[in-house]
Amino acid sequence: MIFVGSRRRIPVYEQTTCAYRLLADTIAFASAVSANDAPEWVALSRCRTMLEGILENVKPTTYTLYVSAGNNFRKEIDPSYKANRKDMPVPVHRQACHDYLVREWKAIECIDYEADDACGVNQYYDGSTVIVGIDKDLLQIPGVHYQWPIVRKGVVVREGRFLKISEEDGWRNFFTQVLTGDTSDNIRGLEGIGPKKAAKLLTDCHSEEEMYTQCKILYEGNDAESGLSRFERNCDLLWIWRELGVTYSIRRETNVK
User: Fold this and answer.
1) Which helix (H) or strand (E) holds 42?
2) What does the alpha-carbon distance between residue 176 and residue 217 come to, in Å, rounded to a whole number?
3) What's the pLDDT score for residue 38?
4) Percent of the chain scored above 90 by pLDDT?
């Protein structure tokens, strides 16, 4: 993930300064995958080219990159978190791209938590920041986001774009995931609920408390024996930190805002 600091030009939002945080894990992985059968230097070159392209689009004056670097507190909450990935082949140059970002681009390694959490904490403390990444999970964090262009086989399938996420948008995106789960991270939501149904179930909810209550009722009704505990666990797994070490359940218990 990249966090980019002040930028010279913001095409969509009129701001004089803006700090960027960039999720560089995706860049390292994509570069490694695209060069899996090529020499290491090809993967590193593609990593550099991708980063330079993103920075050219947003034209920052400062930026910070974050990469996840081993261990993850979420696995202590649920050992099955991302367990569905254990048999997936690791791109040959994945570690080389990671090390390149740390060595040459001064990426900050996040140990015991994820790069997403670092971006969430920074955006929470500083409203002038922009998070750069394409992971949908990030859209629970209010503020400005930049998603770089998606290119497949040389064809741009989605242009780069800036998004403004309101506080209500952020809660809605978070609780939508709580209902649907996240199959890519092996988080099981409620059976039969996809994004469209979740949106309908949350239509009349406009605050955190309303959405929390609605989701809690749905989980209790769906699985009377273990639904509530799974609801609370899923909230903690899906929540991106706003304070260092503060999961969603801790936030509610201590009323951290």
Assistant:
1) helix 40-58
2) 14
3) 93
4) 60
Start-to-end C-alpha separation, the chain? 24
Model pLDDT, residue 223:
60
Distances (CA, A) of 153 to 25, 42, 45, 57, 109: 21, 17, 17, 20, 31
Give the residues across from 108 on adjacent strands: 66
Helical spans, DSSP H, in 59-135: 73-77, 94-105, 115-125
Looking at the predicted structure, is the pLDDT value of residue 129 above 70?
yes
CB atoms within 10 A of CB 233: 18
Element (H, E) at 65: strand 63-72
Cα R_g (the chain), whole angstroms: 19
For residue 167, the tally of other CB atoms under 10 A from its CB is 11
Q: Which residues of 190-221 are buried (b: 16+ CB within 10 A; e: fewer)?
A: beebeeeebeebbeebeebeebbebbbebbee
Report the amino acid identity of residue 186.
N
pLDDT tens per residue across span 184-204: 999 999 999 999 999 999 999
Sign of the alpha-carbon torsion through 169, 11, 49, 2:
negative
Which residue type does 36 have? N
> What's the mean pLDDT when you consider all of the chain?
86
- What is each CA distance from 2 to 28, 48, 187, 248, in whole angstroms? 12, 13, 25, 23
